[in-house]
Write a structure and sequence with these properties.
With 456 residues, the protein is an alpha+beta fold. It folds into 4 domains: 26-133, Thrombin, subunit H, CATH 2.40.10.10; 147-248, Thrombin, subunit H (Beta Barrel); 254-347, Roll (Pdz3 Domain), CATH 2.30.42.10; 362-455, Pdz3 Domain. 19% of the residues lie in helices and 34% in strands. It contains 11 helices and 28 strands. The strands form 5 sheets. The protein has a 7-stranded antiparallel sheet. Strands 22, 23, 24, 25, 26, 27 and 28 form a 7-stranded antiparallel sheet that branches. The chain has a 6-stranded antiparallel beta barrel with strand order 8-9-10-13-12-11. β19 and β20 (337-344) form a beta hairpin. The termini are far apart.
């Protein structure tokens, strides 16, 4: 006797049939009127114009026999383009900061080829968001969605002017969420595989319901063109910036005063975490809200305002969305113990953004080549980190290289022991365990980091 359970098991054929390409044709027709091409005119300075004139004379006399620097051939007037879209019926528009940066004149061309002068209301470099305003009423404002509900694999659509080709549509899926680019920006980018190219910048990213869920901002490329990695600013963050620029003309950001980093497998073992999670504080700035609240270097923030922190970017995104004087509470692990810490954020301070070589390079047990810092190199370090030794080379198969230590790193602590010169380092490695994971603290390009060094 054959029994049926009422459960349908998808075969390979059924699964393939379920995965169909989204049809955005109706959506494109619906939302295109709310998108506009941005045309930017920039005046070249007299010095740049003189360079261009000199370059032209050299070209006339020497032809191709002389190499002329690219910057010397710029014209007196530069033209650039991008994309913008309406967020209100009375003419407010969103685009990227980098689209309009340095502009002398901004115009927008609508879908019906109407050309309007645009006024720059405000622009924020750190988030790469700019607000424009055109005179008029009854503009086709686009519906704003909720980017927090996006799912990886969800179909999305972009409309813009790649390479000047107006109203080009391209589609793809959400590849990842909460992508960060070190400290140069303050938003958790949406990563997609949508084909974006120069000219798409500032254009809208839509979900299947026709709602804007992002502003197309940048591509990852070694050639200047599309290579499968595109990044968009979440509309939730963009609208927050929009409201501040529209109201105040500038953006206020909260400040905690921390330098967090991700926890990897090695560090999770060192700090006895069940899995790699949390934000490890590699530095707490003096007199900052973080220090005043009791946070310390080496703390691991596992929750912030009751929200679980998986990566350092999760924490930074929450702080960047906050306002000065907002309160916070954090669940912290310190020395294996759980703590609850609370405090108040402040305004971001302005600007927040010796021993010579006395020993030859030394090849040590961990596959590192080191030397002491010069007096000038010490001056380049931060105020609270003036000592350390410079990594001049790593053996490709050595323990250090495999743990993520690179030439150019400045080692300040090994196994929690301060390192001021190479002899300190050599002494410290003599006390290392024969097997296990220990911490090594470094400064890399001015930013402190804690690395889990696996001894095998």
């Amino acid at each position: 006797m054959t029994m049926t359970t009422g459960i349908t098991v998808a075969t390979a054929t059924n699964a393939q049939a379920a995965v169909t390409t989204a049809d955005f044709s109706g959506l494109v027709q619906q939302v295109t009127p709310g998108v506009a091409r941005v045309n930017v005119t920039k005046t070249v300075s007299e010095s740049e114009l003189a360079k261009a004139q000199t370059a032209e004379l050299l070209r006339q006399f020497f032809g191709d026999r002389i190499q002329i620097p690219e910057e010397a051939t710029k014209p007196a007037i530069e033209h650039a383009y991008g994309t913008a879209f309406f967020v209100t019926a009375d003419g407010y528009m969103l685009t990227n900061h980098h689209v309009i940066a340095g502009a002398d004149k901004i115009t927008v061309t609508l879908n019906d080829r109407t050309e309007l002068d645009a006024k720059l209301i405000g622009s924020d470099e750190r988030s790469d968001v700019a607000v424009l305003k055109v005179v008029g009423t009854n503009f086709p404002a686009l519906p704003i969605g909720d980017s927090t509900g996006l799912r990886v694999g969800e179909p999305v659509l972009a409309i813009g002017s790649p390479f000047g080709f107006d109203y080009s549509a391209s589609a793809g899926i959400v590849s990842a969420k909460s992508r960060s680019f070190s400290r140069e920006t303050s938003v958790p980018f949406i990563q997609t595989d949508v084909a974006l190219n120069p000219g798409n910048s500032g254009g809208p990213l839509f979900n299947q319901g026709g709602e804007v869920i992002g502003i197309n901002s940048r591509i990852f490329s070694g050639t200047g063109g599309y290579m499968g990695l595109s990044f968009s600013i979440p509309i939730d963050a963009a609208m927050d910036i929009y409201e501040q620029l529209k109201t105040n003309g500038s953006v206020q950001r909260a400040y905690l005063g921390i330098y967090p980093q991700d926890i990897d497998r090695n560090l999770a073992e060192v700090y006895k975490l069940a899995r790699p999670q949390g934000a490890l504080l590699t530095r707490v700035s003096p007199n900052s809200p973080a220090q005043k609240s009791g946070l310390k270097t080496g703390d691991i923030i596992l929750q912030y305002n009751d929200i679980e922190i998986m990566r350092a970017s999760d924490l930074l995104n929450l702080i960047n969305r906050a306002r000065p004087n907002d309160t916070f509470r954090a669940k912290v692990q310190r020395d294996g113990k759980s703590l609850s810490i609370s405090g108040k954020l402040s305004d971001t301070p302005e600007g927040v953004q010796g021993e010579g070589i006395d020993q030859q390079d030394n090849v040590v047990r961990l596959g590192l080549r080191l030397r002491n810092l010069t007096a000038d190199e010490q001056l380049e370090l931060t105020a609270d980190e003036k000592t350390g030794v410079l990594v001049t080379a790593t053996e490709p198969t050595g323990l250090a290289a495999r743990s993520g230590i690179f030439a150019g790193d400045v080692i300040t602590k090994l196994y929690q022991k301060p390192i001021t010169k190479v002899t300190d380092f050599n002494s410290a490695i003599s006390s290392l365990p024969k097997k296990g994971v220990v911490t090594i603290e470094v400064i890399r390009q001015g930013i402190p980091a804690i690395i889990g060094l696996r001894i095998e």
